Amino acid sequence: MEKVKVKVAVRMRPLLSKEVQLNRPVCVQALPNTAQVVLGQERTFTFDYVFGPKTKADEVYTSCVKPLVSSLLNGHNVTVFTYGKTGSGKTFTIGGGHGDSTPEGDRGIIPHVVQDIFQGIAEKYHSDFKVKASYIEIYKEKLRDLLNLETQSKNIHIREDDKGNTVLVGARENTVDTADELLGVLEAGNTARHIAATQVNETSSRSHTIFTVALTQRDSEANLTLFSKLNVVDLAGSERVAQTGNKGQLLKESAQINSGLLALGNVLRALSQPHRRGQYVPYRSSKITRLLRDSLGGNSQTLMITCISPSSSSLHETLRSLQFASCARTIHNQLVVNWDKGMERVGEPELEESALQEPVWNQGGDSQVSQDKCEQSQAKGRALEEKIARQQQKLLQFRNFMEHAAHLLMELRDSLDPTLSPTQSLHVQKLQETNTEMPNQKSIYQPSSCKGAGEDSHHITILQLRLELRKCQEALAMNEQILSQKEAQLQQLQGQVDRLEQEKRVQRRALLEDRDSMLMHPKP
Ligand SMILES: Nc1ncnc2c1ncn2[C@@H]1O[C@H](COP(=O)(O)OP(=O)(O)OP(=O)(O)O)[C@@H](O)[C@H]1O
Question: Between 9 and 351, whose confidence is greater?
C-alpha cells in the first residue's frame, strides 16, 4: 500500500467580457514560475500547480493530468475533480459540454484523457483491455443515469467492494472500443445534463456529474487481471444567493448544491485534521461524499482542480475556494493496485453485481443476529442522515437569509436617512419573500415587524433590523447545536456499521479465497 497525497491545482480564468465592461479590478494573481497565488495584497497560497489566465487546457492537461493516465493504465484508481464558485470555469476546464465554441488548444481535459487512454492501450499489446464508461449526475440529491434516463434513481446504489472501492450498481455501463466511441458516450450524457442560465453564468451546471471510465486489463502471459477506474467529477459551483439573485426552482437547486458542497467541506476538514485522523468522517451525509469516498482518504490518486475568477467581485468566494483547496492538499490516500489472478475478479460482471447487492449473511450463512443488527444500525443511520440533511438544509436557508439581512444592514448603516429608499424597500420585501419560502414555520424565525412591505417597511429602523438579525443568529446557533448532537449519534452508529461491514468483507474475502482454491485445485 502506497501513501499518496491529494494533489491540488488552481486554475484562474481570464476576466470575462462583461467583467471587463463593468471595470472590475483583478484581486488575485499567479506568481510566475512558482506554484503560488496571491490574493489581495498579502495572502499567499501554495499549491502543487498554479495556472494563470493565459494558460490553455493543453498545458493544464500535460502538467497535472497526463501522469495520472499512466497510473490508471498501471492499475490505479484515479479521480480528477473540479471545485469552485459558479462561473469560475470548472466545466470549461473539464471539457464537459460547451463544445463547439471552445477555442483551439482549450478543449478541456477529457478529450486529452480519452485520447491518451486509447494510445496507452495500443502500446500495451500484450494485454487485453475492456473499457466501460458510465455517466451519472447528482441532481437535487438524487442519482440520475445520464446514459439511460429511464433508470429510476432508487435503482442506482452506491456500494463498496471488498477492496474498499466505491462501486455504482444499477447505472448503465457502455462498453467502448475506440476513443471516438468514448467521447460519443460523454456527449450523449452531456445533452441530458441539468444546465440553466443564471445571472452569474449563462450555462450553469445545476448538478454534480461523475464520468467514469473503468478498465479491465488481462495479461495472459502473467495470468493477471488489473482493474482500475478513472472518475472525472464536475462539481456544481457554490452560489451566494445574494449575488446570483436566484429565485424559485434555481434557488432550490442552489440550496441543494450548497448543501452537497457543505458536506464535502466537512469530509475534507475531518480528513485534514491530524487529531481526527482514523476517526469518523461524515461520508454518508450526502451522495457526492459517498461517491467520492474512495477518492478522498481511500484507494485513489486524486487531483483537485480549483477554478477561480480573478474579479474582485468574487473575492470572498475565491478566498473560500483557496482555503478549501489548501485543506484538500493535506489529505493522504492509500493507493493499492487492484489485481487478481486469472480471468475476472468474481466471474461474470452480473455475479459481481449480485454479490454486491446480496446481503453477506446469504453468502456466508452467518447468523441471523448479525443480519438484524446490521439492518437496524443501517436503518437508524439512514434516518439520522436524513435528519442531518434536513438540518443542513435549514442552516443554509438561515445563512442565505442572513446574507440578505446583513447586506441590507450595511446599506442602512451607510445611509443618513433612517427612512427607507425605494430600493431598500424592495430589498426588505425580497427578504420577507425569502423568509416565507422557508419550510417549517415554527422553527424558522419570522421577522415580527416586516409585515406589509409596501407601506410599513418605511418605518423599520436600523435598530429593529439588528434585533431581528440577532434573533436569527440565535436560532442558527441552536440549529447548529442540534446538528452536532445528531452528528455525534451518527458517528456512534457509523462505528457499528463499519464494524459489521468489516466482518462482511472478511467473510467475502474468505469465500473468494475458497472459490479460487476450488478453481485451482478442482476435486477429482
Ligand atoms: N480559462 C478560460 N478561458 C476563457 N473562458 C473561460 C475560461 N474558463 C471559463 N471561461 C468562461 O467562463 C464562463 C463560465 O465557465 P463555466 O461554465 O465553465 O463555469 P462553471 O464553474 O462550470 O460554472 P457553474 O458552476 O455555474 O456550472 C463560460 O462562458 C466559459 O466559457
Answer: 9
- Of 110, 201, 257, which is best to mutate to test ligand 1, by the most ligand atoms within 8 angstroms of its C-beta? 201
Domain membership of residue 523 (yes or no) is no
In a domain, 521, yes or no: no
Q: How many domains does the chain have?
A: 2
Same domain, 256 and 337: yes
> Same structural domain for residues 349 and 390?
no
**pLDDT tens sequence across 14-36:** 998 888 888 878 899 999 888 99
Atom number in ligand 1 closest to CA 53: 1
Which residues, 6 or more positions from 277, have their beta carbon under 8 angstroms from its beta carbon?
Answer: 271
User: In terms of domains, do 128 and 58 share one?
Assistant: yes
Q: What is the DSSP letter of 238?
A: B
Candidate of 13, 54, 60, 138 to mutate for ligand 1, largest count of ligand atoms within 8 Å of Cβ: 13
What's the start-to-end Cα distance of the chain, in Å? 38
The predicted pLDDT at position 356 comes to: 43
Distance (angstroms) between ligand 1 centre and the Cα of 125 equals: 39
Is 61 domain-assigned? Answer: yes
Ligand 1 centroid to Cα of residue 338, in Å, is 36
Out of 85-99, 243-257, 446-460, the most confident range is 85-99
Ligand 1 center–CA 93 separation, angstroms: 8
In the listed set 354, 378, 409, which residue is the last one of a domain according to the structure? 354
Picking from 48, 91, 2, the residue whose alpha carbon sits closest to that of residue 300 is 2
Q: What is the DSSP string of 25-53?
A: PB-EEEPTTSSEEEETTTEEEE-SEEE-T
Q: How many CA within 13 A on the CB side of residue 487?
A: 19
Atom 14, ligand 1: residue with shortest CA distance = 87
For residues 164, 170, 174, 179, the Cα torsion angle rounded to the nearest 10 degrees is -40
Is residue 117's pLDDT more than 80?
A: yes
CA 16 to centroid of ligand 1, rounded, Å: 9
Note the pTM of the prediction, 2 decimals.
0.68
**Look-up: residue for cell 491518451?**
116
> Which range in 347-351, 406-410, 517-521 is most confidently predicted, on average pLDDT?
517-521
* Calpha distance 79→420 (Å, rounded): 52
Q: Is the CB of 92 under 6 A from ligand 1?
A: yes
Ligand 1, atom 16, lies closest to the CA of 89
Q: Is 511 exposed, middle or buried (0-12, 13-18, 19+ CB in 10 A)?
A: middle
Running DSSP on this structure, what letter comes out for residue 85?
B
Of 354, 382, 410, the position where a domain reaches its end is: 354
User: What is this model's ipTM?
Assistant: 0.97
Q: Which domain holds residue 257?
A: 2-354
With a 6 Å cutoff on the Cβ, whether 204 touches ligand 1 is yes
Output 118 or 429, whichever has higher pLDDT: 118
Residue 237 CA to ligand 1 center (angstroms) comes to 11
